[in-house]
Amino acid sequence: MLTGRGWFFPLFFLIPAGLWFSAVCIYSILWCRGCIYPQTWTIAALPPPLDQWMAGIVGSLFIGKAGEQILAKWRSKQFLKHCI
């Protein structure tokens, strides 16, 4: 994800999504109705269709690069088996 010329473009999505997710986690621990410091307010939900797509987008950013590396290792092992 952090290689190449456009490594910073995913950050335009990951930073706001990470801030929102962190806010939801902290709210769920501290300020929900049944928590330590109950409040009446809530964290706003993401607008549709981003609420359904966010996991797929974040997953594709990380899994894509990891999958590429796994496939490269697997292909090199398969290539070595054919050479022997």
Please, could you describe this protein's structure?
The chain has helices spanning 11-30, 50-83. It contains two helices and no strands. With 84 residues, the chain is mainly α. The chain is elongated. Helix content is 64%, strand content 0%.
Brief account:
The chain has 84 residues and is mostly helical. The chain is built from two helices and no strands.
Q: In DSSP terms, counting alpha (H) and pi (I) runs of 4 or more, how many helices?
A: 2
Question: What gap, in angstroms, lies between the N and C termini?
Answer: 34 Å
Summarize the main sheet.
Answer: none
Total domain count: 2
Indicate the overall shape.
elongated
Helix amount: 55-70%
Number of strands: 0
Q: Low-confidence runs (pLDDT<50, min 5 residues)?
A: none
Would you list the SSEs in sequence order as H and E? HH
Write down the overall mean pLDDT. Answer: 78
Structural class: mainly alpha
Beta strand %: under 5%
Cα-atom Rg, whole angstroms? Answer: 20 Å
Give the arrangement of secondary structure elements:
Layout (H helix, E strand, L loop, with lengths): L10 H20 L19 H34 L1
Features:
single chain; 84 residues; mainly alpha; 2 domains; 2 helices
